[in-house]
Specification:
alpha/beta, three-stranded mixed β-sheet, 15 strands
Length: 446
């Protein structure tokens, strides 16, 4: 049976903006309140999806969140018409208003943790939406994310969906941004790496002091239990607290893996050698490539600025691996020099493809943030909602949809404009019909 890894990228929403709300995400803070281009961001994302599909990769699309979140503003005491709610929130609680206008759904690696059927006790693909509790504006997303995932992977014969973990920082969960799977073949049993920033119930353990550790050890354990994973196929690794304090808010900013390759910075992990040995032992006697980038070759600061490790490593149809990198990597002397050398070494990575995803980069997310990886058998891929899989027809539909509904430019002041809310809801209602995912948004369910 043929097995594939499918990248499901998140569509950028029509209210894409730079509010700078993610403390610990340096790029997000540096670009706070700058004008954004929702249309350009969406088209950049679609361009990357189409390019990967043209390379022969299986590529899917996930819908964005609805913003502004009028439902949450009403829960917080604002009343009247939708226009009244927006006006009152913007005037009386501007920080709350901005939070309810922001979403991280374009960075789909934050959406959920996925375990393929080869790893799970019941032989199904398991999904758990991330609760994203560390930031209020991101914690608004899990319910809708869960509905979008269920609309995309609806066949209960093949797919199992879990409710997100409790909405408490003891179980803070950031999804696939802190989860990597290593395997020989996508359809064979693999080793799932859960990377955490701190222990929630044991304050004596190492933890960062400047920036928050968004993922907890306890959350990682809970997801492994929910997904029915064997202890023999799971490794829990702590992210280096010192590197979190340098702006590495997720593991996928400092490490990325694919099949038998783990590509990481030497400062990425705590107790690195012992954990790499555990990975190798659980991986067995199969060949496993640990590709370590030294601080001398690329500093942590340059890795964060260029998102060297927030690149995608994909396996092409010919069996070779390629890195999908942002153009910032190409423009960096040290990073481009490193990548040029990497493809000549004795590893599976043989090519680098650069993409312009600046609208995402400015808000703190590179190519790897933009996708959720789902390893599927041929039968499971056939069970996925076909309207969400990228091809020439869907690309044309979504490009026309973006050009029809999205604004060229958006400022933070525009977020209180009730016309933007109407535009956004009109666009999203049409999108759910294009993707045929059902009524996933609150405004569709009243």
């Amino acid at each position: 049976m043929k097995n594939r890894e499918v990248n499901f990228d998140g569509l950028v929403g029509p209210t894409h903006n730079y509010a700078g709300l993610s403390f610990g995400n340096v790029a997000s803070l540096n670009n706070a309140n700058a004008k954004s281009s929702p249309k350009q961001a969406a088209l950049q994302g679609l361009g990357k999806m189409k390019a990967l599909a043209d390379m022969g990769m299986a590529q899917g699309v996930l819908a964005p969140q609805e913003r502004p979140d009028i439902h949450m503003l009403r829960r917080l005491g604002f009343s009247g018409s939708d226009a009244d709610v927006l006006k009152a929130a913007a005037e009386k609680a501007p920080e709350v208003h901005l939070a309810c206008c922001s979403a991280s759904s374009m960075w789909t690696a934050n959406a959920a943790t996925v375990s393929p059927s080869a790893d799970t006790a019941d032989g199904k693909v398991h999904f758990t939406p991330a609760n994203l509790t560390n930031k209020f504006h991101r914690s608004l997303e899990p319910e809708v994310t869960g509905r979008i995932l269920q609309g995309t992977f609806s066949d209960s014969k093949h797919f199992a969906h879990h409710k997100h973990l409790p909405d408490n920082e003891h179980f803070g969960d950031e999804g696939a941004a802190n989860h990597t799977r290593l395997c020989h073949d996508y359809g064979q049993e693999g080793v799932e790496l859960f990377v955490y920033g701190r222990h929630a119930f044991d304050q004596s353990k190492p933890a960062p002091t400047k920036y928050p550790a968004r993922q907890t050890f306890e959350a990682c354990q809970a997801i492994a239990r929910l997904h029915g994973l064997s202890d023999e196929n799971v490794v829990y690794m702590q992210q280096n607290p010192a590197v979190i304090d340098q702006g590495v808010f997720h593991n996928d900013v400092i490490s990325v893996g694919n099949q038998n390759v783990l590509f990481y910075h030497e400062q990425a992990f705590f107790d690195t050698e012992a954990k790499l040995q555990e990975i190798q032992e659980k991986f067995g006697d199969r060949l496993l490539h640990f590709i370590k980038v030294s601080t001398e070759a690329v500093s942590v600061q340059e890795a964060v600025r260029t998102y060297l490790f927030n690149t995608q490593i994909i396996t092409l149809p010919n069996g070779e691996m390629a890195i999908i990198a942002p153009t910032e990597c190409e423009e960096s002397e040290s990073v481009s020099r490193y990548l040029s050398e990497l493809v000549t070494l004795d590893t599976p990575i043989k090519k680098v493809h650069y993409f312009d995803v600046k609208q995402s980069m400015r808000n703190g997310g590179g190519p790897a943030c933009l996708r959720l990886r789902v390893a599927l058998t041929e039968q499971e891929l056939d069970a996925v909602n076909p309207n969400t899989l990228m091809n020439d027809t869907l690309y044309a539909k979504l490009t026309n949809w973006v050009n029809k509904h999205y604004r060229e430019e958006l400022s933070v002041a525009d977020l209180s404009d009730p016309t933007l809310l109407i535009e956004s809801r009109t666009a999203l209602d049409e999108l759910t019909q294009i993707l045929k995912i059902g009524s996933v948004y609150p405004f569709q369910r009243v």
